[in-house]
């Protein structure tokens, strides 16, 4: 039988287990009876982590702040700040999270790379892609940041995204291709390949972009695969290869079930058919958009195209 990976299920969606209840009770008892001992600081951190994993963010934040108030040793302080920052980020308090990550500043701290990465995520959340790129660049350029398991590849992906948001397409392409070259087994590999395709498309390197999108489209049937087929079609449209474009675009609505992408693909395919003098088929696609996606922005586009077809 095929080796099918187990689905990833958030801890918060699983009922609280008896062993977790016992662990929580033990931590609370330790904290209550030995509130000022260093071991109580560890207990607050570990209990805060348990609460955070179950998205019980407010009690986790309160507990971690209490742990910081006890002024624990520096190594434990950094661990608490990192977890507190993650909880605040999950609450969409990006500024509060940044303050915690920035406080981890010791060059010898084993958590410094994590802090830089998390700060970069916060800056992206705040819409400051340029500063995010500055925080994430060490993962591409500095040796000590380039091969941290479970972190360096994700940081390169987010650096590629940050550079794309500032329209530094060549730098984004190089960064994401670096991810692909260094981390062939990364769980972010398909997203990186899609990002390379997007950067090359923006650089008007359409054939190269299609090659990268094809790598994604042939490897997954997720939304990323649907987006890849759509972008292949748009690249071929830019090259005025309308028949090829229509074929790629029509894969989306007849293979996937993503309403916005399907509506976009149908409209763009209709435009290709109009260009190839197949007005009747184009009209059917546009009517399908109006009928099945009437509330979307693409329905407005379809109605405009239909009106233009009627005028001849």
Question: Your description of this structure?
Answer:
It is a single chain. By secondary structure, this protein is mostly helical. It has helices at residues 18-33, 38-53, 57-69, 74-90, 94-102, 112-125, 129-136, 138-141, 152-165, 169-182, 189-202, 206-217, 223-238, 242-255, 259-275, 279-292, 297-311. The longest helix is centred in the N-terminal third of the chain and has 17 residues, at 74-90. It is elongated, with a radius of gyration of 25 Å. The model has no long low-confidence stretch (mean pLDDT 94).
List the helices and strands and how they pair.
Layout: H1 18-33, H2 38-53, H3 57-69, H4 74-90, H5 94-102, H6 112-125, H7 129-136, H8 138-141, H9 152-165, H10 169-182, H11 189-202, H12 206-217, H13 223-238, H14 242-255, H15 259-275, H16 279-292, H17 297-311
Helix pairs in contact: 1-2, 2-3, 2-4, 3-4, 4-5, 4-6, 5-6, 6-7, 6-9, 7-9, 9-10, 9-11, 10-11, 11-12, 11-13, 12-13, 13-14, 13-15, 14-15, 15-16, 15-17, 16-17
């Amino acid at each position: 039988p095929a080796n099918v990976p187990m689905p990833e299920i958030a801890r918060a969606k699983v009922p609280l287990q008896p062993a977790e209840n016992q662990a929580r009770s033990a931590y609370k008892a330790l904290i209550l009876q030995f509130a000022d001992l260093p071991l109580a600081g560890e207990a607050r951190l570990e209990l805060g982590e348990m609460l955070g994993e179950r998205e019980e963010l407010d009690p986790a934040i309160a507990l971690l702040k209490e742990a910081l108030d006890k002024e624990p040793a520096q190594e434990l302080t950094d661990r608490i700040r990192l977890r507190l920052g993650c909880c605040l980020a999950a609450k969409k308090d990006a500024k509060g999270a940044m303050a915690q990550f920035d406080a981890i500043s010791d060059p010898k701290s084993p958590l410094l790379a994590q802090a830089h990465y998390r700060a970069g995520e916060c800056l992206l959340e705040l819409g400051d892609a340029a500063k995010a790129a500055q925080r994430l660049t060490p993962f591409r350029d500095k040796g000590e940041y380039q091969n941290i398991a479970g972190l360096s590849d994700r940081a390169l992906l987010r650096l590629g995204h940050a550079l794309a948001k500032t329209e530094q397409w060549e730098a984004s392409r190089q960064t994401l291709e670096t991810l692909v070259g260094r981390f062939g087994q990364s769980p972010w590999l398909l997203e990186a390949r899609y990002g390379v395709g997007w950067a090359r498309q923006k650089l008007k390197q359409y054939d190269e972009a299609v090659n990268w999108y094809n790598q994604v489209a042939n490897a997954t049937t997720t939304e990323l695969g649907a987006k890849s087929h759509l972008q292949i079609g748009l690249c071929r449209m830019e090259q005025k290869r309308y028949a090829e474009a229509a074929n790629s675009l029509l894969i989306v609505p007849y293979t996937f079930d993503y309403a916005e992408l399907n509506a976009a693909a149908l409209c763009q395919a209709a435009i290709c058919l109009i260009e190839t003098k197949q007005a009747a088929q184009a009209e059917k696609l546009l009517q399908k958009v109006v009928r099945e996606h009437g509330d979307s922005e693409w329905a407005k586009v379809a109605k405009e195209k239909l009106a233009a077809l009627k005028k001849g």
